[in-house]
Amino acid sequence: MTTDFLVIGSGIAGLTYAVKVAEAMPDKKVLVITKTVSDETNTKYAQGGVAGVWDTAIDSFAKHIEDTLIAGDGLCDKHIVEIVVKEGPERIRELIGWGASFDKASDGDYRLGREGGHSESRILHHKDVTGKEMERALLDKVASLTNISILNHCFVVEIITQHHLGYLVTKSTPNITCYGVYILNLASQEIEKILSKVTLFATGGNGAIYRSTTNPAIATGDGIAMVYRAKGRIENMEFIQFHPTALYEPGKKGQSFLITEAVRGDGGILRNASGEAFMARYDERKDLAPRDIVARAIDNEMKVNGTEHVYLDCRHMPMEKFMEHFPNIYEKCKSIGIDVSRDMIPVAPAAHYNCGGIQTDEFGLTSIDNLYAAGECAGTGLHGANRLASNSLLEAMVFAHRAAHHALSAIATLSETHTGPNGERIPDWDARGTTSPKEMILITQSVKELQMLMSDYVGIVRNNIRLERAMRRLDLLYEEVEALYRTTRVSPQLCELRNMITVAYLVVKCAQFRHESRGLHFNTDFPEKSAIVQDIVW
Question: Which is it for the CA torsion 346, 349, 353, 355, positive or negative?
Answer without folding.
Answer: positive
